[in-house]
């Protein structure tokens, strides 16, 4: 979250790359430009990664320029910007979830090359929250560069396909990678079992997903980007949890708990990066 000193994964742990490491992404972002153009995506030019403002540098004005206008009546100090990364194997539906959430659309999308970028402003009553959503490529050949996107992340949505057991195991691997690079408790992690519309082909039971999430103290939901089931709820639950943590840090009364209950998020512990 970029506001008054709060930071997510700062990239200071051994696995995180120094700032210059971003240059390594440029090639892949260029490829992204050639290889992919889904409506609703904000095209990411190679130099965008370099000009990205440092943590704490986003102002309200910056939000407005990016389309993130705070809700009327919200005081300037009640706006937040959070970086959220979408992680998971190829074809589990990361881009589809993002597209559904941001544009309420579902269509055939080419595999992501490098990373795609979305923004979405969430109105939580008196508080306005902007998500910067980094949709990483799930194909194995991009695995090593995906770590670059962990830098500064406040939240991670870890997606698997309920019809593919391998993608469930891979999500567990992604969590380990995240834990290696982000200090425990710094990142809100939501585990999502996508494609519930394909229930007859299910290989991962609801219980398995739930148990794993509970064992790692993650938020958990199943969803269908195709049928638009539980998609908004996934991101809303993350938003409320981020807000709740922020308010706790600031010593304010916490509205987030009620929000979590309303959005249908699990009532259990919502910590992440727990070892
Ligand atoms: N039936 C069904 N298909 C889905 C759902 N979500 C995504 N798909 C399909 O799954 C395929 C992969 O979706 P993507 O959103 O591109 O998956 P991804 O995880 O972003 O894939 P990479 O870009 O390779 O990492 C596409 O054919 C989608 O139409 C869903 O909820 N139900």
UniProtKB/TrEMBL annotation:
Bilayer disposition of the protein: Lipid-anchor
GO molecular function annotation: G protein activity; GDP binding; GTP binding; metal ion binding
Compositional bias (Low complexity): 256-275
Compartments where located: Cell projection, Dendrite; Melanosome; Recycling endosome membrane
The enzyme's E.C. designation: 3.6.5.2
Keyword Magnesium set for record: yes
Gene Ontology cellular component annotations, sorted alphabetically: dendrite; endocytic vesicle; melanosome; recycling endosome membrane
Record family assignment: Belongs to the small GTPase superfamily. Rab family.
Identification of the protein by name: Ras-related protein Rab-17
Source organism per UniProt: Ursus americanus
């Amino acid at each position: 979250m970029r506001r008054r000193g709060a930071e997510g994964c700062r990239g200071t742990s051994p696995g995180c790359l120094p700032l210059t490491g971003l240059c390594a992404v440029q090639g892949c972002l260029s490829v992204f430009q050639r290889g992919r153009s889904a409506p609703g995506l904000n095209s990411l030019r190679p130099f965008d990664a370099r000009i990205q403002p440092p943590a704490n540098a986003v102002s309200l004005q910056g939000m407005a320029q990016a389309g993130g206008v705070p809700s009327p009546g919200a005081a300037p100090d009640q706006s937040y910007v959070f970086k959220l990364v979408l992680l998971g194997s190829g074809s589990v539906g990361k881009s589809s979830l993002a597209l559904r959430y941001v544009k309420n659309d579902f269509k055939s999308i080419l595999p992501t090359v490098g990373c795609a970028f979305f923004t979405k402003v969430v109105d939580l009553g008196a508080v306005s929250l902007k998500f910067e959503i980094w949709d990483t490529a799930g194909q194995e050949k991009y695995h090593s560069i995906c770590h670059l996107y962990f830098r500064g992340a406040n939240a991670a949505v870890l997606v698997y396909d309920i019809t593919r057991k391998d993608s469930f195991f891979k999500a567990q691997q992604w969590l380990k990678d995240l834990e290696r690079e982000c200090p425990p408790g710094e990142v809100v992690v939501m585990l999502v079992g996508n494609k519930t519309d394909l229930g007859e082909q299910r290989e991962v039971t609801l219980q398995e997903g739930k148990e794993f999430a509970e064992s790692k103290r993650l938020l958990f939901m199943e969803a269908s980007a195709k049928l638009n089931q539980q998609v908004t709820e996934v991101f809303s639950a993350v938003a409320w949890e981020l807000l709740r943590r922020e308010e706790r840090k600031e010593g304010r009364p916490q509205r987030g708990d009620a929000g979590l209950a309303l959005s249908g998020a699990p009532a259990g512990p919502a910590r992440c990066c727990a070892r």
